[in-house]
Design a protein that fits this description.
Blueprint: H1 7-10, H2 32-41, E1 56-60, H3 66-74, E2 79-84, H4 87-100, E3 105-109, H5 119-123, E4 127-132, H6 141-154, E5 155-166, H7 175-188, H8 192-208, H9 218-228, H10 232-239, H11 249-257, E6 262-266, H12 274-277, H13 280-287, H14 292-302, E7 307-313, H15 321-329, E8 332-335, E9 345-348, E10 351-354, H16 357-369, E11 372-373, H17 374-378, H18 389-398, E12 402-405, H19 414-427, E13 436-439, E14 448-451, H20 452-462, H21 469-476, H22 482-498, H23 500-505
Parallel strand pairs: 1-2, 1-4, 2-3, 4-5
Antiparallel strand pairs: 5-7, 6-7, 8-11, 8-12, 9-10, 13-14
Helix pairs in contact: 3-19, 4-19, 7-8, 8-10, 13-14, 19-20, 21-22
The structure holds S-adenosylmethionine (SAM).
């Protein structure tokens, strides 16, 4: 973990914590191919992305740059820029990019509160996509205003912006808890991760004393979970920022209108399918309004999910239903797991969603062989009904079982092998093996979401090490008791059986890599 000693004293962070690096992570919703899908599902033209497109991608508040690096690595023609004001983050991101030899990514140290007015901001090229994940509701007004000015200046007309934030009213029960944690933590002093632990101790004590406003809701429970797992760096970035302020969707839409952005839908694709989100009674109220902002307020009043992941377009071009279906039909999907691991049912707020076997069975079987265009899937001879492209894309990608890709997977080239090796060397930590990461892939233009443990295994396999789950478990679990090492060994064996075929099929490992 990177620590910046003494940074807090200087307080250049304007209330945002700067003495502890944020964790690396990959969030599939930031990928331009995914954001394009969200636009098409919302009947809005996306940005045309083909294998030869020279796309500009800008990430604001990029942390250690893992996502930006992965997208650049998988798409040599894209021009990727990551911005963050923490020099420790920028130094780490640049070091990985240099070791990986990825030259189409740049990391710029700048404060978003003022970047639009500086030379660095003026020199930034316009981008087709701007991604802002985990920033908006954790910073103060000056930074949010600066982001809007940057979007106005740097997002191309027709370009897509992705913005995530802690949503109200889901977070309303945590307002008192966050404030208590922040104030108690600050009084305890020391580095932010120690502060958050100290603050949490007071929250727990008062919750046990039945404080009326620290009820045992999902947020307090998730905090307990994270603190038990020792994720204090994550917790510090979540709770110890002075500007922390969950937001209503309507207020975010109003703020981004300042950059002429139109709200299109959710990057969590299933959220765009109201029958999966709201029961009949809720839908009756929802259906009384045409206004999408009022509809989202009603939706947010029912959903317990805490993070909104919104997609905006700078000048939306509305598509007629036939145009939308034709565009969705051209999307190529890749199955992210083996057919045997496909989940035919999954939980949604209204209960369980089911992939009808008659309709989706042939589609999943075809995808298990190779990526396919949606219109080719819908033309499969054995489908019992016509189906529509929005349903296929929404269900498969929305349940995180398929990825949009640009082309057929290829054998991993030198660039991808070097990328996967560099990220494994820089980021793998034995105490965070289930962190959400991604593997570089050749041919598809799409990083393959995975865990940190996958990164470790792929790196070892591509180095030509003999596959030895026992040795890897002993190495990763060196500080753990024997029973924990045994558990890890079993888990690695299962990963090798279930995941290695996918790594090979989707261009992260050579098809000829040694078998587990
Ligand atoms: C919670 S992290 C999210 C990082 C990354 N987007 C992710 O999701 O993994 C928020 C990031 O925003 C950066 N940040 C906060 N305030 C900023 C500002 N005023 N200007 C630039 N970056 C800022 C922090 O340094 C941190 O890396």
């Amino acid at each position: 973990m990177i620590v910046t000693p003494g940074a807090r004293g200087a307080d250049w962070g304007a209330g945002y914590i700067t003495d502890l690096a944020y964790l690396p992570g990959y969030y599939r919703h930031q990928s331009p191919l995914h954001l394009n899908l969200a636009c098409l599902l919302g009947s809005v033209a996306g940005v045309g992305i083909g294998p030869a497109t020279r796309l500009g991608y800008l990430e604001l508040g990029c942390g250690q740059g893992f996502g930006a690096l992965m997208l650049a690595g998988c798409n040599p023609l894209w021009d990727v820029v990551g911005v963050d004001f923490n020099p420790a983050h920028i130094a780490a991101a640049r070091a990985v990019a240099a070791d990986a030899g990825i030259e189409n990514v740049r990391f710029i140290e700048a404060d978003l509160a003022e970047m639009a007015e500086t030379a660095a901001g003026r020199e930034l090229p316009e981008a087709e996509i701007v991604a802002i994940h985990g920033l908006w509701s954790w910073v103060g007004d000056a930074v949010r205003d600066g982001i809007v000015r940057l979007l106005a200046a740097k997002l191309r007309p027709g370009g897509i912006a992705y913005l995530s934030y802690n949503a109200l009213p889901a977070w309303q029960g945590a307002l008192g808890m966050q404030r208590l944690l922040l104030e108690a933590g600050r009084r305890a002093g020391g580095r932010s991760d120690r502060q958050v632990v100290a603050g949490w101790e007071l929250v727990r004590e008062l919750a046990e004393a039945d404080a009326a406003h620290l009820y045992d809701g999902p947020l307090v429970r998730s905090l307990t979970e994270y603190s038990r797992e020792g994720q204090s760096a994550y917790l510090a970035h979540e709770y110890m920022n002075a500007g922390w302020r969950p937001c209503f969707h309507a207020d975010v839409v109003r703020a981004l209108a300042g950059a002429k952005l139109d709200w299109v839908g959710s990057a969590q694709l299933l959220e765009n399918f109201t029958p999966l989100m709201l029961d009949e009674k809720a839908r009756a109220a929802y259906g009384r309004y045409d206004d999408p902002v009022m509809r989202e307020l009603i939706k947010d009043t029912f959903l317990t999910r805490c993070l909104r992941q919104d997609v905006f377009v700078r000048g939306a071009r509305r598509l007629a239903p036939a145009e939308r279906d034709a565009a969705l039909g051209e999307v190529t999907l890749a199955l992210q797991q083996e057919e045997a691991q496909f989940a035919w049912e999954f939980d949604v707020p209204t209960g369980q969603a089911t992939f009808g076997r008659e309709f989706f069975g042939p589609i999943v079987a075809a995808l298990a062989e190779a990526p396919r265009r949606v219109r080719d899937l819908l033309a499969l001879p054995d489908l019992p009904r016509r189906g529509n492209p929005g349903e296929v894309v929404g269900m498969l990608v929305g349940s995180n079982q398929a990825l949009p890709v640009l082309g057929p997977p290829a054998e991993p080239d030198v660039r991808i092998r070097r990328l996967n090796r560099a990220v494994a060397e820089h980021f793998v930590r034995p105490d965070m093996l289930d962190l959400a990461m991604a593997l570089g892939t050749s041919g598809t233009g799409s990083p393959l979401p995975c865990t940190m443990l996958d990164l470790f295994i792929v790196d070892r396999v591509q180095r030509g090490e003999s596959v030895d789950a026992g040795a890897w478990a002993s190495e990763l679990g060196a500080d753990q008791p024997e029973s924990e090492q045994q558990r890890l060994r079993d888990f690695i064996e299962r990963m090798l059986a279930e995941r290695a075929p996918v790594w090979r099929r989707l261009g992260a490992l050579p098809r000829s890599a040694p078998s587990p």
